[in-house]
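cron nightly-structures :: item 1 of 1
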Amino acid sequence: MRKLMRGAFVIGRRDFSATVLSKTFLFFLLGPLFPLIFGGVFGGIVGGTVGQHDKIEVAVIASDAAFGPLQAARDRLAGAIDNDRVVRLVHVLPEPDVAAQQQRLLSGGEGQFRAVLSGIPDHPKLAGAIQPDGTTAGQLRLMLASAADGNAAQPPLQVTHTAASAGPTPRDQATTGQIAQTALFFFTLLLSTMLLSQLVEEKSNKIIEVVAAAVPIESLFVGKLFAMLAASVLGLIVWTAAGAAVVASWKGLAVLPPPATGWPTFLALVVVYFAMNYLLFGAVFLTIGAQAATVREVQTLSMPVTFGQMLIFGFAAAGVAAPNSGLALAAGVFPLSSPLAMVARAAQEPGIWPHLAAIAWQLLWVALILKLGASMFRKTVLKSGPRTRWRWPRRAAAGK
């Protein structure tokens, strides 16, 4: 074990220095910039289109007799302009404790409401994440005036600006998990494929045989894997530092719903699961790259490997909506999808012990895949003597 770790350290230091100190490392750091630019442009277009059709919902705590005229006024306003641009009203029957009911509605316990209207028709009060002079309050004033049917004694609408919700809802936490899951998939897809071409390049230059003669094959694989992981983490730090300014301009992490485990624990788990996801796929790519002899073979293998990663990402993402479902648990147990599934679970479930068990499970599979890859490399590439060839007996000549 000591010899293995010493050899892995030597190989890792060599590969890390050769990667980071090369001229192409700068272009490597600029690599994610282009897909992010295109993603931001198209995301802004799609988000602007979708945002035009998102309706703001306001809960109305009132009796049937009081809500009827207000809904009729809302329908008249929608017919005059555009139904998609008019606030949607949701009728809620009053409870004995109206203040507690209003707080529960604003906290997301019974739906995603922007505001709550109560006290109609005599003392209308509007509370929520809206501005007193905003569009939502203005539309409700028009509805109340129209519902009053010309009554000159119509009282003014009192608007109280409050937080949108008292805490994150499961849907909001699932959004945070999906964002972290997508980031892990994107960076792993971008970084782990470099192991394929790097190993093939050394094989074509006959360097790999010289290195394999000096250190164990397991040390070679472990050193290369962790060297590229260190280079990837360095790139990730640079990208995170560059993106921090952009995130800070959007009020930091406040733009995202807080995860169930809390931001410090969640961010630490994101880093750990990124490393585990990279190690798992990197070990698989090293095993595949060890069997390829030319760059053309690597290019041929890259497409099915990439599609395989996308299928695994879809498998892990399918269980985000229900973290305790059978599909989500299966994605958490399957080694290659486990980091993606568990990082989404960290945003939705507060428990820590499942993550410790998952990390140990993933480390076990990294060791098994590396052991398998080293064994296959030793048998198929470094074996002595010609390969076994199957010879079929020739048919007897005609007439004999």
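cron nightly-structures :: done
The radius of gyration is 30 Å.
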